[in-house]
Amino acid sequence: MSQEILINITPMETRVALVENGVPQEIHVERNNKRGLVGNIYKGKVVRVLPGMQAAFIDIGEARTAFLHVDDLVPRSNKKTNAEPAEISHLLHDGQQLVVQVIKDPVGSKGARLSAELSIASYSLVYMPALEHIGISQRIEDEEERERLKTTLTSVVDELQVSGGYILRTVAEGATDNELRNAVSFLSRAWADLVERKVSATAPCRLYEDLPLYKRVLRDMVRPEIEKIRVDSREILEKLTSFANKFNPEIVRLLEHYPGERPLFYLYGVEDEITKALQRKIDLKSGGSLVFDQTEAMSTIDVNTGAFVGRRNLEETIYKTNLEAAVAIARQMRIRNLGGIIIVDFIDMQNAEHRRQVLRAFEKAVARDRVRTIMSGVTELGLVQATRKRTSQSLGQIMCAECPTCQGRGYVKSAESISYEILRDILRAARAYECDSLQVLASPSVIEYLLDEDSAQVADLEKFIGRTIQFRVESLYPLEQFDIIPV
To answer: How far apart are CA 190 and CA 121, in angstroms?
Structure first.
């Protein structure tokens, strides 16, 4: 399968897209003034310990205090030997300083999620100084290669006399002794520099910052299937070439400058995909549709048949729509970068074999995702449950803001409801103020409703309160805003 990575650079932000056979599959956006925190290491200060939640809030110098749970504080080796779970109040106290790492970016009203188990990554390795273990990515399936890598890395670690644990990343497959030796040496120097800065640093402060998005692409997204990495900035291309020469020279041949007049993302249709990914409803080719609703707790996806009626019967229609939806949902999960709990409401199917085939198609489509997704089967209500690892904000959370009119509800009161509310408030104002008349300021649609459908109620109200009611259109008022002024 042909895959390309597109890197679009502007002074304000960096955007990256993964394209498979000409179709965008992943989109990542990093704003220069709002870079993600995942991977950053901080020297923080405990602000508050919460024994009931077995957690603590840590000041790391960011806008919101970060969250540290006891499970992310106690080293993994200790968790296996402790019979009783550790008490957070026995481990931390207010004002205490400790070194922590961000494992989840702030989302919504929640601060960043922290871990005291630190790690730093290179192109092929992840170094964990607190552990003594060598792990290998599950995506490296060849048992002989896994054994060779483990043996080689163990030998290199012993030779360089360094402590700590390592995880061999997927891209380490085929790595030579010298490449692993260079990676271990680099990580050792980086960790020694971090430890040196930790001694003199005053909390809260940042000790280590993860790579910018355009460099993380080379570290995290490059696989054997990638044929080209196109960059529309010569300056960034030079930085990437230098970075690749240092860590993996084989990638240099993939790097290519895009000099075209037509913007790179328009050429591959990525801009259109971004627009679709920010919409609540997505139409399927068959005529069906998907409806996405994202909240802080979970994301829900509803499948509808729409205009697709099938050729034989309703069951065939439902089955075909669900099959198409399964593939489309998996792709949208990647493009939108949905994380956490995901509930999919496929159209109910009577045929057990159809249900099995749809679930299998969904699992197969999800398996192509770089981000780990766990499927937990079908519930009694016929809903498919999944959890997708969430480390950063979704595309919508990065690019959109809460609607000031509906306050994020996704809907507003009708003009009829606002009209009735105004009539009630007029009656209250007439009792509260001594005046000759009352003036109503509201949006055009509400004033129109009051003067048309509710004109009889307005006349009756004027007669009841013994005062005239004036109306003034305020075109800048949102639908739910109005004022009643005594005149």
So the answer is: 10
CB 95 within 8 A of CB 45: yes
Does residue 79 surpass a pLDDT of 60?
no
Token reading at 267: 């050429």
Q: Which residue has the tokens 């779970």?
A: 85
| Distance of alpha carbon 24 from alpha carbon 8, whole angstroms | 14
| Residue the block writes with tokens 């805003």 | 481
Nearest to 328 by CA among 311, 306, 296, 353: 306
| Residue pair 96/45 in contact by the 8 Å Cβ criterion | yes
Beta pairing, strands 289-294 & 66-69: unpaired
Using alpha carbons, select from 344, 354, 281 the residue that is nearest to residue 314: 354
Report cis status (omega within 30 of 0) of the bond before 204: yes
Model pLDDT, residue 223: 81
* pLDDT of the residue at 154: 92
| C-beta of residue 441 within 8 angstroms of C-beta of residue 472 | yes
Residue 157, CA distances (Å) to 75, 134, 332 in order: 21, 10, 42
Residue, of 286 and 43, whose pLDDT is higher: 43
Q: Percent of the chain at pLDDT above 90? A: 59
Contact between 62 and 38 under an 8 Å Cβ cutoff? The reply is no
Q: Which single residue is written with the structure tokens 């502007």? A: 10
Q: Can you list the positions of beta strands (E) in 287-348? A: 289-294, 298-304, 340-345
Per-chain mean pLDDT for the chain: 89
Instruction: Tell me which residue of 469, 456, 455, 487 sits closest to 427, measured CA to CA.
Output: 469
Strands (DSSP E) along 295-401, which ranges?
298-304, 340-345, 373-378, 384-388
**For residue 80, pLDDT beyond 60:** no
Q: Specify the length of the chain in residues.
A: 487
- The per-residue pLDDT for range 92-125, each reduced to its tens digit, is 999 999 999 999 988 777 889 999 999 998 878 9
Instruction: Yes or no: say if 13 and 30 are a contact pair by the CB < 8 Å rule.
Output: yes
Q: Which of 10, 7, 19 is nearest to 335 (CA)?
A: 19
Looking at 183-187, 298-302, 437-441, 442-446, which range is the least confident one?
Answer: 183-187
- pLDDT at position 173 over 70: yes
Phi then psi for residue 114, to 5 deg, are -115, 165
Distances (CA, A) of 205 to 55, 61, 192: 21, 6, 18
pTM: 0.79
Q: Where are the alpha helices (DSSP H) in 230-279?
A: 234-247, 264-267, 270-277
| Residues 258, 231 contacting (CB under 8 angstroms) | yes
Query: What is the C-alpha to C-alpha distance for residues 132 and 155, in angstroms, rounded to an integer?
Result: 14
Give CA 418 to chain center in angstroms.
Answer: 36
- In angstroms, the CA 36 to CA 113 distance is 12
